[in-house]
Design brief:
Strand content: under 5%
Radius of gyration: 39 Å
Number of domains: 1
Largest sheet: none
Length: 121
């Protein structure tokens, strides 16, 4: 009977050590995983931030290209189209032809402030 008790105790101690070894392995794998994650998270954050900055700059480039094409078209029309030149000159100088009636519509103040602030950029 002592022999079976000894075997039981030896098996019990072996299973305890096996469990501790499993726990140790799991903790070791978890520690390695945390080290790997801690090495790759900061560069990934910089990558995401850089991509957001690139998107923002690309949007600004697109806006500037649109503005450039609009202004280029206006310059070409001012150089080549006499009717357009006359219309713009009369509008900016507040002149009118004989018998012509001009109606001016004022933009709301909020829209004026918005256009004024976007024009200053």
């Amino acid at each position: 009977m002592d022999q079976t008790y000894g075997n039981f105790r030896a098996r019990r101690e072996a299973t305890v050590w096996q469990r501790l070894n499993r726990i140790l392995r799991v903790l070791l794998v978890l520690a390695v995983w945390l080290v790997i994650v801690s090495l790759f998270v900061p560069p990934y954050k910089r990558l995401v931030q850089s991509r957001a900055e690139i998107d923002n700059l690309q949007q600004q480039v697109n806006e500037q290209q649109t503005l450039l094409s609009r202004q280029t078209r206006e310059v070409n029309m001012l150089k080549t189209d006499a009717t357009y030149l006359e219309t713009i000159a009369r509008d900016r100088l507040d002149l009118m032809k004989e018998g012509e009636t001009i109606f001016r519509l004022e933009a709301p103040r909020a829209a004026k402030a918005k256009t004024a602030s976007s024009g200053r950029r």
